[in-house]
Each structure stands twice: as structure tokens, then as C-alpha cells.
Design brief:
By secondary structure, the chain is mainly alpha-helical. Helix content is about 60%, strand content about 5%. The chain has 29 helices and five strands. A five-stranded antiparallel β-sheet has the order 4-3-2-1-5, sandwiched between helices. A hairpin with a 5-residue loop joins strand 2 (about 705-710) and strand 3 (about 720). The longest helix has about 50 residues, at about 455-500. About 35% of the residues are buried.
């Protein structure tokens, strides 16, 4: 079998395998429900008290009432899932059945957290029961999809899909949370067994068609981590004792309590009182030995004055401020004698309450996530690492850092990371200047007494003042570019409508291509610009629309020969009006001259007999009339003001989409049309996922340059990016699509790095919760 036919057959087999699995869904779920009911009855008979028996009895009753309808509807849900969303799935969401952010966690109540953890436990059980046959089936499914190696997350039949659909059905049935949790616990083992048997049978059927499974890679899979992260979780680099402490302290429910703690107004409640309040709310029956009261850690002495404002003011007023900061930023003899872990451990031992222990561990993991994130250059990550002692001291007295995004320390960390993303390399002078500013105002925080957020607020204030001039200039540049591009988009959209209307003029079918291109291109831009400037609301502003009929007549030698006098009188007026209109849009003089030369040749043909005119010069533009005249155009000044990137290959580099042919006779029992197959050829970064504020890297002349998406035009035809120096780059939608498809643009970050670091802590808390005993 040649490769083309085999690819077609494999695709059909792949679709048929999904169809067969969807058809088997009802019987599979009925088998699982039956086993779960038996398990519930056993627990009911062994229940120690009436409350437990009543709860289990309710679970059995509701199962009997809802199971038939759920079983009947399961195949349709499976078919829909296989068609629409079985391919793309992040590893971060696999374990917890959907990504869980810290902002979502803080809005959840205790029962919702318990259900999320229980669902992840169920997934582990199901995966364990189905693993042997699942691994073999994933090898077959990867082969059918034409992959080079086994990718389990590209298997649309993996347990996560079944379990997520089952959970959706339970929620849709409006079952009580505790009933859903109880059902899931009893469904886990039977579902794993049923899926294992289904996977084994399907694998054998696929094998019977001569399909060879791909070899499974022997490389150990890395721990689950948030998408886009190249390095492993920073906590894995700690000592075993640190990991054990974090695991025993940080669970999903405790983290929820920390994030959801309502911060009282600062004028009424001091930060340390907020810690006391949170400690009272935190339900912690036992904890590590470090919670025992220990003497507070003495703050390291510095050359600064006793108060923070005075210290910063003195520093700013010194003529050798940079030298002072450099000297204070050098490690002291005591720092050199101890490793960073030792300083961290000393601070850890100062924790005197459950709230402090939890806050400390969350901050440690959050900082570790940031300083191991290679999207930031090393110099900026070093600054964040130096800031760690100050942040750790802060959260021991002020837990509001975690639940208040406007907390000064959190805003400072947000500004450092967000502005730091502008630099893809530490080699630029701008990056060096940015790091120098951080050394001046941020590094000293680790050496002064921290008992409130005031030092962080002052550091942020000083940095903002230093950055303000550049920020104002950058904002002005962006605002000017936005106005220019917005106006250009309005003009281009209007020009497109005018062009569509002109296509109905009969004479447009009788003139040569250069004339059609001119009228549907620059002259439509002229008429659109005049219309946008038409404050007096005249019918034909500038008289440019009326010129179209005259130009079309003058471009037809067979007509102009009949009235040479009219042509002679018209030429001067025509050319003058054309120049006037083209000046309105700042049309390049070189292109103007090229068109005028072509037009003059047409006019000269009127003075020659028709028999002497070459036939090729009389070819009209009928075939090209409705061609590509709608390419967005910017005037030279507009392009300069917005940094417009004019790419010649706007229409190239489109993704290849596999279009399978019809195969005679089903190879299995049924076939599902794969709507999402086209998505496999599309890069992860798409126009739909690209939002304002996202940082990207663009390959320009072989060099990756980092920019931030600052603006998208109202009709999404223009995109504006801003670089580290405030320079702008604009491009059309086709140009942007071309960059994405040809992998000349890659996503760096599309959300706050601080939020992302906290989301990773949530992920770690989920893993820790799975290791604890279920309640």
C-alpha cells in the first residue's frame, strides 16, 4: 500500500474507532453504574450510624432514578466530544479535570474544593485500572493519526474525556455535591475496569487491520506542570525536608482559605491583626513542629536609617547613589557563610502559627516558580531572588498579599515581571538600564526591617517615577499609532464598499487591467478619504466619484477615436484632478507616474488606426475585476507612524489541512466525521487566543524580537505591537496569520506571571491533596 492510500485508510480507521467507542458508551456506562450500585449497597449495609445510612440510601435512590437517562444520552455526548474537543488538552489540566486558577479557587467553597480533589483521585484510580490496555491503545491511535511518536494526550479515548463527560452529566442532573462525590468514589474502580476492557478490545480490532502501533518512548514523563513552562517545578530542587514540609502544609483547601481570606480595610485592621484573624479561621488540627513558638528572628542590620522613608530619601540624595546601592547589594560576610536555603530555613523557623507556616510555604513556592521561569532574563530573576527574604518577612505579618491584587508588594512584583518580559536578551542597553533601576530601589528591601507593606509601596513609587518619562513617551507613540491605524481601517473598509459598487459599472469590463487596479485600489482610497473628511455632507466630496466615468471613457481607445477633441480637452483636466486626489492619501509619486504612463499609452492609441494597435494592448481586465483589490493599504506617513510591516507573502504559508477521500465500505462499524482534524495543523498560537497585553516573539530577518500586543483594531484587520523601547510595529491580519502559520511568531506570555506563579502553587496543592487521605 502506498503512503497516500495508507494515510487515507488510517484516518478512516481512526474515525471509525471513535464511532465504535461512542456506540459502546451506553453499555459501558450501564455496566459501571450497576457495579457502583452494588458497591453503594455494600457500604449501606456496613454503615455505622443512621446518618451515614441515610446518605448512602439517598445515593442509591438517585442512582436508580437517573442512571437510565444518563446511559441513553452518553453516546451522543461522546460523539460530540470526539468531534469538537478531543485533540487539544494541556497536561496541567489532565490531573484535575480542567485547569484551576487561584482566582477560581478563592471563589470556591469547601464542598467544591472537596469535589475537585475527589475527582482528581477518581481519575488516578481510573487511569490505574485502565493503564495497560490504555498504553497499547494510545500507541495505535497515535499511529492512526500519523504522529511520529506516541502522544497519550492526543488520544481522544483517554479516561479524562469519559470522566469529564460523566461529571458534566452529574452536574446537569442537579445532584447534591455530596451525592456526586459519593457516586464518583464508587464509580472509579468499575470505570477503570470497563475502560480497560474496552481499550483492549478496540486495540485488537485495529491491529487486525494490519496497523502497527508506535513504539512508546522510554523517556520518563516529567511531572505535570503548567503549560509553557520549560523547567520543572522549583520545589523539586529543594531538599527532601523542604518538600515534606510543603506537602504536609500546602493542600488545596488550606490554600483556598488563604486566598479567600477577606482583607479588612487597612485603616481599621493592622496587617498582624489580619494574620491573627486568618489563623482563627484556618482549620488546622495538627501541623509541623516548626509551628511551636520560637523567638522572632532578628532583622539584619544595615547602613540605612531606622525608618524606611528616611533610608530611601538619603539614598536618592547621595551623589554616589549607584555606588552605595552596589555596595549594599553585595552579600555580607554572614550571607556568604550561609547558603540561600539556610537563610530561608531560619525564616521558616520563625513561623509561630498555622497561618504563618502556610503563607510562608506559598510564598516560597511562588518565588521559586518565578526565579526558575526562563522567560525572564537572569538579571531580573536574580533581583526577584534577592527580594525573597523581604517578601517572606512580609507574609509573616501580612497575609493580604495573596488575596489583594492591589497590595503594594504584589504590585511591585507584578511591575517587575511584566516590564521584565519586554527583554528577550540581557544584552540590550535598555535591559541593563532596567536591571540597574531594580538594583537601586528593590535590592535594598532585603536588608531593611519589614513589618508592613510601606517599604514596597515606596519602592514602587520610586520606580514608577523613574519609568514615568519613558512610559509617557511610549503611551503617546502608541496612541498616535492607534489613531492612525483606526483611521486607515475606516478608510479601507469604506474603500472596499466603494470598489464593490464600482464593479457593477459596465465599462469596468471593457478597460485594461491597470485601469481597473487603479480604480479599485488607490482611487477607491481617495474617494473613501474624501468621504471621511466630508463634514459638509456633500454628495460627491471633491468630485472624485464623478471622475470615474471620465477616466473609464478615456481608457477605451475605440471610444476616444470617435471624439478626439473631447479627449484632447479632457486629458489636462483629468491628470490634474487625479494628482489632486492622490495627494489626499499621500500616494507615492513613483507609483503615480507608472499609472500615468500606462494611461498616456491608452490615450495615444486613440490617434492611431485600430489596425495598427497590437491586440495584446487591448486586453481587458474582465478576469481580474473581482480579484484581490481589497488588500489593506496604508499611506507612507501612516506606515511610518505605526511601524507598519508590509509583508509580500501575506497569502502564503497557509496551514495544510488533510481532506480525506471517501473509502468504499466501512472498515469498522461506524465513522465519526473529524471536525477537529484541521486544527492539528494549526500552531498552538492562533488569532483567537492572541489577546491585548500578550507578549510574543517575532522573527525579523532571522532575529527574534520581543513585543507586546498593544491594540487590535475594531474590525480586527490591524494589529499593533510595542517593543521594549516603545517602538511600534503594526501589521495586517493576513500578515499576522502568516507569521503564526510559518512559526515566525511564538507566544511568550498571555497573562500575569505573578498570577501564573500562584496558579502553579494551586497545582502543587492539588497534588499534595491527592496524597492525603480522603475525608
Amino acid at each position: 500500500m502506498n503512503p497516500a492510500n495508507r494515510s487515507e485508510q488510517y484516518l478512516t480507521l481512526f474515525r471509525a474507532a471513535l464511532g465504535q467507542s461512542a456506540r459502546d458508551g451506553e453499555a459501558l456506562l450501564r455496566q459501571v453504574f450497576l457495579a457502583a450500585r452494588g458497591s453503594l449497597e455494600q457500604d449501606f449495609n456496613r454503615a455505622p450510624g443512621p446518618v451515614e445510612r441515610a446518605q448512602l440510601g439517598l445515593c442509591v435512590k438517585l442512582l436508580d432514578e437517573n442512571a437510565p437517562l444518563m446511559c441513553a444520552g452518553f453516546p451522543a455526548l461522546l460523539r460530540q466530544a470526539f468531534q469538537d474537543k478531543q485533540i487539544v488538552s494541556s497536561q496541567f489540566g489532565e490531573l484535575a479535570m480542567g485547569e484551576l486558577s487561584h482566582s477560581q479557587l478563592e471563589r470556591m467553597d469547601e464542598s467544591e474544593v472537596q469535589e475537585r480533589v475527589e475527582l482528581a483521585r477518581v481519575l488516578q484510580t481510573v487511569q490505574g485500572g485502565a493503564r495497560p490496555s490504555l498504553n497499547e491503545l494510545s500507541a495505535f491511535m497515535s499511529s492512526l493519526q500519523g504522529l511520529s511518536h506516541v502522544k497519550p494526550d492526543r488520544n481522544p479515548l483517554r479516561p479524562q474525556i469519559y470522566l469529564s463527560l460523566l461529571q458534566e452529566m452529574l452536574v446537569h442532573a442537579e445532584l447534591p455535591v455530596q451525592v456526586r462525590i459519593s457516586w464518583m468514589r464508587h464509580l472509579a474502580a468499575p470505570l477503570g475496569v470497563a475502560l480497560g476492557a474496552s481499550y483492549a478490545a478496540l486495540g485488537q480490532r485495529i491491529k487486525s487491520y494490519g496497523v502497527e502501533p508506535l513504539r512508546t518512548s522510554t523517556v520518563t514523563s516529567p511531572p505535570l506542570r503548567p503549560p509553557g513552562r520549560s523547567a520543572g517545578p522549583a520545589q523539586l530542587q529543594r531538599s527532601g525536608g523542604d518538600v515534606a514540609k510543603a506537602t504536609s502544609v500546602l493542600t488545596l483547601d488550606r490554600l483556598r482559605q488563604l486566598l479567600a481570606t477577606q482583607a479588612a480595610p487597612q485603616q481599621n485592621v493592622a496587617p498582624d491583626e489580619a494574620v491573627t484573624q486568618f489563623s482563627g479561621e484556618l482549620d488546622w488540627n495538627s501541623g509541623p513542629a516548626e509551628m511551636a513558638p520560637t523567638p522572632a528572628l532578628e532583622e539584619p542590620t544595615t547602613d540605612f536609617a531606622s525608618t524606611v522613608p528616611a533610608a530611601f530619601e538619603a539614598l536618592q540624595n547621595m551623589n554616589q547613589a549607584d555606588d552605595v546601592v552596589a555596595r549594599l547589594s553585595q552579600p555580607s560576610l554572614m550571607d556568604k557563610a550561609h547558603k540561600p536555603e539556610s537563610a530561608r530555613e531560619k525564616l521558616r523557623k520563625s513561623c509561630q502559627s498555622p497561618a504563618q507556616v502556610l503563607s510562608f510555604e506559598v510564598m516560597v513556592q511562588m518565588i521559586d516558580n518565578l526565579i526558575n521561569d526562563t522567560r525572564l532574563v537572569k538579571g531580573i530573576r536574580d533581583v526577584i531572588e534577592n527580594l525573597e527574604p523581604a517578601l517572606l518577612r512580609l507574609v509573616l505579618v501580612d497575609v493580604r498579599f495573596f488575596n489583594n491584587k492591589q497590595h503594594p508588594a504584589r504590585r511591585l512584583l507584578q511591575e517587575i515581571t511584566e516590564r521584565g518580559l519586554a527583554f528577550g536578551s540581557a544584552d540590550s542597553p535598555e535591559c541593563a538600564l532596567f536591571i540597574r533601576s531594580l538594583h537601586r530601589y528593590v535590592n535594598p528591601l532585603s536588608r531593611i526591617h519589614i513589618d508592613s507593606a510601606e517599604p514596597f509601596d515606596l519602592a514602587l513609587y520610586n520606580l514608577s517615577n523613574m519609568w514615568s518619562e519613558q512610559l509617557v513617551q511610549s503611551q503617546q507613540t502608541v496612541q498616535q499609532a492607534m489613531r492612525v491605524l483606526n483611521r486607515a481601517e475606516e478608510r479601507n473598509l469604506l474603500a472596499e464598499k466603494i470598489c464593490a459598487a464600482m464593479a457593477q459599472i459596465p465599462d469596468m469590463q471593457r478597460v485594461p487591467a491597470p485601469v481597473v487596479d487603479f480604480l479599485c485600489g488607490p482611487w477607491c482610497q481617495v474617494m473613501a478619504a474624501a468621504e471621511l473628511n466630508n463634514t459638509e455632507h456633500t454628495e460627491d466630496p471633491g468630485g472624485y466619484k464623478g471622475l470615474v466615468k471620465l477616466l473609464l471613457w478615456s481608457a477605451q481607445p475605440e471610444l476616444t477615436r470617435q471624439d478626439l477633441g473631447k479627449l484632447t480637452k479632457l486629458v489636462s483636466k483629468l491628470l490634474s484632478k487625479l494628482r489632486e486626489g492622490l495627494s489626499l492619501i499621500d500616494y507615492p509619486s513613483v507609483k503615480t507616474s507608472l499609472f500615468f504612463d500606462a494611461l498616456m499609452k491608452l490615450h495615444q492609441q486613440a490617434f492611431r488606426p485600430a489596425s495598427e494597435v497590437p491586440a495584446s494592448s487591448l486586453q481587458t481586465a474582465t478576469a481580474k475585476l473581482l480579484g484581490n483589490h481589497h488588500k489593506l493599504w496604508l499611506a507612507p506617513e501612516e506606515a511610518k507612524a505605526s511601524g507598519f510591516m508590509d509583508m509580500a507573502d501575506d497569502d502564503t504559508g497557509k496551514p495544510l489541512v488533510l481532506q480525506p477521500s471517501q473509502v468504499r465500505g466501512p472498515l469498522l462499524d461506524s465513522v465519526i466525521p473529524m471536525v477537529s482534524q484541521a486544527a492539528q495543523a494549526v500552531p498552538a498560537l492562533t488569532l483567537e487566543t492572541l489577546t491585548v497585553g500578550a507578549w510574543v516573539e517575532i522573527a525579523i530577518k532571522g532575529v527574534w524580537q520581543r513585543s507586546q500586543l498593544s491594540w487590535i483594531s475594531p474590525q480586527r484587520t490591524m494589529y499593533l505591537f510595542t517593543g521594549a523601547q516603545g517602538q511600534t510595529q503594526s501589521m495586517t491580519r493576513p500578515s499576522l496569520e502568516n507569521l503564526i502559520v510559518t512559526n515566525a511568531m511564538r507566544l511568550v506570555s498571555d497573562h500575569s506571571m505573578v498570577d501564573g506563579a500562584l496558579d502553579e502553587v494551586v497545582h502543587t496543592a492539588m497534588l499534595n491533596s491527592l496524597d492525603s487521605s480522603p475525608t
